[in-house]
Amino acid sequence: MSIVPESERPNPYSAYGAHGSVLVLNSGSSSLKYQLVNPVGGEAIAAGIVERIGESSGSVRHTYAGNTTERELEVPNHAAALRLALGLFDEIGPRLADAGIHAVGHRVVHGGERFSRPVVIDDDVVAAIHELVPLAPLHNPANVQGIEVARELLADVPHVAVFDTAFFQALPPAAYTYAIDRDVARAHGVRRYGFHGTSHQYVAGKVARVLGRRVQDLNTIVLHLGNGASASAVRGGVPVDTSMGLTPLEGLVMGTRSGDVDPAVVFHLARNAGMSIDELDTLLNKRSGVKGLSGENDMRQLRRLVEEGDEDASLAFDVYVHRLKKYVGAYLAVLGRVDVVAFTAGVGENDARVRAAVCSGLEGLGIAVDEERNAARAGEPRIISPDWATTLVMVVPTMEELAIARQCVEAVEGLQPSAAVPAG
Ligand code: AMP
């Protein structure tokens, strides 16, 4: 298999442009990221971020037509943040009235068992996202706030919720069920949900398109390695396993999250270190991962420490890679046949050393990286495995905002989900 040049690839989204642009909003607890996206070509027409919402000094950065405007100012809440962003569209451009906004897409972290696809938002959907707060206490409240403010300020266009968990609602029961008392699990929604679904779905689909294959014919392992990190096994476009669970804490070693640990670590520390539930939550989510082991959560800083001979940083890197390799091996077994291993997100797209370390020693399984191909830098999807390898190793930049924008068009127009669109 090889990459089909872009000019020879059919674009299944070419009709989406008739619907104008999509404003994608990603509300965090103290930030609001936004991007105005062209759903056909995928380019960001304008993008920005409001940070430190609710603090005494906040900031906004707005980029349009190659120019970035930055300002420091107090932003009391999400309503003020969105008003600020809308004001910058008017002041610096592009004017939203001229951009022909077709829909506003909201990234929502937890959709529970209720949402397996994007939905056009009405009051019932807002209430349902609110009901899911116990499953995502840090994320869903900010998402609800962002939705409520945006529906008020941009009342003339449909708003769509795109859930991080939706893609993984198709997991088989054997993969999503925890082996704990079934009554307790059912009563409290305890199961594996999976996260980063928009990215895993986009990358699995993109792999097929750039190779000129149908997504239904490919088995892919997607490694989304950013500050948060997750792995998935995708058979014919349908997920069959993923590393994140009830929350984004399970699975791979991340920037500040531990990933898999023996759950008894929690009981042990509660009993012997007198730590409260909240302290343990903070320990495993914010003070663990490569940061917990080395003091640095950013892979670039970690690598700098490794090069300076820092032993804690070396161990952190080794633990990170070891866990990743275990997941690749597990998903090889789950899938039986793997056509592509795809690296994506900040670390996966940029760190050649991580990619080489994960694949080293797997030659006997048909997986390897070619040193020169791996070292080359490009913003486009590319193959980094040698010609003899039976599994392609690829770097595929993720574009979550674009994926959200296309899913918005599909939800509003009632079109087929994009992952099912064959490459032709
Ligand atoms: P993301 O969450 O996808 O934005 O990824 C963020 C992470 O990507 C950061 O914490 C960095 O560790 C990592 N990253 C970004 N650029 C590079 C790079 N050039 N080399 C290594 N890691 C990088």
UniProtKB/TrEMBL annotation:
Q: Which InterPro entries match?
A: Ac/propionate_kinase, Aliphatic_acid_kin_short-chain, Aliphatic_acid_kinase_CS, ATPase_NBD
The biological process GO terms on file are: acetate metabolic process; acetyl-CoA biosynthetic process
Q: What is its main location?
A: cytoplasm
What is the main EC category here? transferase
Q: What are the residue positions of the site described as Transition state stabilizer?
A: 196, 257
The residues forming a coiled coil are: none
What binding details are noted for the cofactor? Mg(2+). Can also accept Mn(2+).
Residues of the active site: 164 (proton donor/acceptor)
**Stored SUPFAM superfamilies:** Actin-like ATPase domain (SSF53067)
Binding sites annotated in the UniProt record for substrate = 107
**Keyword Glycoprotein found:** no
Q: Which GO terms describe its cellular component?
A: cytoplasm
User: What name has this protein been given in UniProt?
Assistant: Acetate kinase
